[in-house]
Records
---
Amino acid sequence: MRRKPKSASGSLLELVFIVAVALGLALGIQAFIVKPYRIPSGSMEPTLAVGERVLVNRIGNNFSDPKVGDILVFHPPKGADVNECGIPGQGPFYDGPQSRIPCSRSTSTASDQNFIKRVVGEPGDRIAIRDGHVVRNGRVQEDSFIKDCGQGADCNLGTITIPKDQYFMMGDNRGESDDSRYWGPIKRDWVIGGAFASYWPPKRIGPL
């Protein structure tokens, strides 16, 4: 028995349905599984260049906590909008050069911005900065991937303790990064996901 040919309106309806399903799947993948992210600044150089595009694992964020070394996309605290610490007067500009410390507590709510930085401190860690290198629980961390901090005053900061369920974030370009030194650790709930691969430009394709 020969099939009855589809009408033009039937074919159009089928095409619209296929496009709608494909669009829905793409949006669902971005919303819940993998999201692309464009690097907006040089704060993560040399690891990530301005304009580079990375993939962010959103679903993994629901099953495991961040670890030191992870590169995360996250909402910073609202204090990041104006480099404000959650403790008035505290942060790298705190009370003169002899007592400068990183910001130990962020403002209470998240910003709408998306940042990308590296985890350098987990809950309960004691963190200090020496010549741009992280001193974690008394030990200078291996960080051959960073860009030299230079002579900036914020390259040497005293010790703070990271609060429960919070993470201290820094850019790999230690002398040119707006990070937790200024506005404090981020809350676990503010993490969007972990960046796991670069997909553009072609010469930068690969895992992170």
---
Amino acid sequence: MKKTFFSNGKLLLTGEYIVLDGAKALALPTRYGQYLDVAHTTKNTIHWQSFDADGSIWLDQEIQLSTVFENKQDDQNSEVNTLVKILHEAWLANPEPLNDIKGLSVTTKLTFPRLWGLGTSSTLINNIAQWFGIDAFDLLAKSFGGSGYDIACAQNDTPILYHLDNGQPIVEPVAAFNPPFADNLYFVYLNRKQSSKQAIESYRRRRNSVPPVRAKIDELTQQILHSKSLAEFSHLLQEHENIMSEILGLPALKVLAFPDYPGTIKSLGAWGGDFILATANENPEAYFKAKGFEIIIPYKEMILDRGIDFSEGDF
């Protein structure tokens, strides 16, 4: 009998980096995500296969159960080591799924290209947590680490407000974030995957400037959530970018790469890679494609939101 699990991908609209220090962030679950299928076999191993969105296999490994129980690390394969560590921590939290079994066939399938940075790791962790019946935030803390907003997105079907209170995740699903100007919002892939771990390490070296602006980021997050016009939304995004630019000691991406773009550009998550959000009065595909960026996804095609449109007075 096969069991199937699914988790949503993620994008972080506000509070990047500072969410680690308690700031309130507006996070958006995506329509894209990852499946995990588990079936029992008689192989005496865990046969693990991970498929990218195009159907190609990026991980195909036979893992001995003893490797998981003992957390044995293979010096030659960091991806397998990471997987074994996650499974080991899940097993420690709840041994039952691996008790009295002969073998397993486990398959993961992304519905977005792995290099897009929409949460290959967080969707995996949340799926494994569902499989083992354990707390995904705890599993994240014992494996990858991070703020946990991506786990919250994996578990929610509407945008969320997220923050840490003494290290504990606080998740507030919002009725909807489907503003009347949603058709003027586009996500653009920057053709490169940004390392979240490296970005966080860089931020931590400069974090002394954070406490004075955390309250301002909280305020901006609320204002952005309740924006009623594209002009207001764009102005608030730019203010957020200016604050983060100063904290990180980095020029805002629009200044660096798109100075002639007529709309606003907001970095999402780790600066310098993955996706950006672009506001536009008209479809900006021609502009970005001329600069070599072929993947431009309208807001409504990217963001999962099964809530109620507050622009109609229900928020």
---
Amino acid sequence: MTTLTKSGLAAAVLAAFTYLPLQANAALFDDDEARKAILDLRAKVEAMRTELSGRIDNKTDKSSTLDLVNTQEQTMAEIAKLRGQIEVLANELSNVQKRQKDLYIDLDARIRKLEPKTVTVEGKQGTVDPTEQKAYDAAVLLLKGGDYKNAALALGDFVRMYPESIYAANAQYFLGNTYYVQKDCKGAILAQQLVVKNYPDSPRAADAMLNIATCQTELKAVANAKKTLTDLISKYPDTPQAQEARDRLKGK
């Protein structure tokens, strides 16, 4: 059996150290390679321990045994270093996995923000994309804040950009209201007529007809107001707005 010399052991340990940093760097990019590096290092450590123990047992020469014992101590120190590097490598692997998980969670959250969502408006369901939702919310916020001029611009832009939106009927109706509060009855009538024409199935359509009749009355177009109220009763007979129209006609 060949004697394990100090230089031979040093060469084996040096080879193990030369191999280790490459695997440690690889762990930053590939989990499988990092795991393989850990397993390989552990196997090398155990092989070195087993080989050294076997050779000590087979030596009868006292001086040779002493040399081997000294070599073993040196080797054990190197093994301890290898184990330390294994721990570092395992820790790096754990950190990589955590970063990957955090990255996935962040990416998933960003994707969800870009996905259309389902909303219910006036009893109807529809999907809206984030840009559409943001534009509508901004317009309504201007309206609620009393900035009717800019609200009218924002609502008009919204209807032009999203004519098929689940919010379109509301936006067109609110647009008519912004004209009315600015004492622009003609603009209000035109805007509300588009609600009736383009969104006849919307609950806002009956409200729009009431608003049209109100503006026509204020413009002294009483005959037109009566016709609008009559049409409202005919189109939406079972609605609260139809009852309001009947009450108004009785008073005229």
---
Amino acid sequence: MDQLPPWAAVVLAGGSATRLGGAAKPQLRVGGRTMLQAVLDAVRGATTRVVVGPPQDVPADVLLTREDPPGGGPVAALRAGLAVVDTDVVAVLAGDLPFVTAALVTDLRRRLTRDGVLVVDDTGRDQLLLGVWRTAALRTAVAAPGAPRALHRAVSPLEVDRHRPPVTPGEVPPWLDCDTPEELARAREVAERSAG
């Protein structure tokens, strides 16, 4: 198998988590670890791992930066994260994906042939914060003067492939995030059942 090129990872770990009572969502625990730690474990092979968001606990080898303005949304966060990336390939993930795996990230890296490749969920929705990109193309898209604040608009000019990873019946999809107390409770229940 051909050696895949070096890559970096940018994890967006900001947002106000208003539906979770304003808690620091990436720091909430699912299955014995924080959701942020689950994501950072999935991108452990990256040459550089960058977390964009407010001050929070991250491993010593992970860079922590903040978008400008703070709370400015995913485009501003990506701009900040990409500023410290020096590889041609970058994985971009949300910080609240407790079931994402290193195998999926590797699969996406293998599938990168154009500007980007991202996961599509079982409803056909693009998961913009679960993909792998050509750094230069993504940097241009989010740094353009007057770049839209909405990420889907910012990346719409890019040539993007979509990947629908298979999910075994009864298993949790890797795109499951935790935006509400109900989703968080479900994720914790699934993680507990899997560990038992």
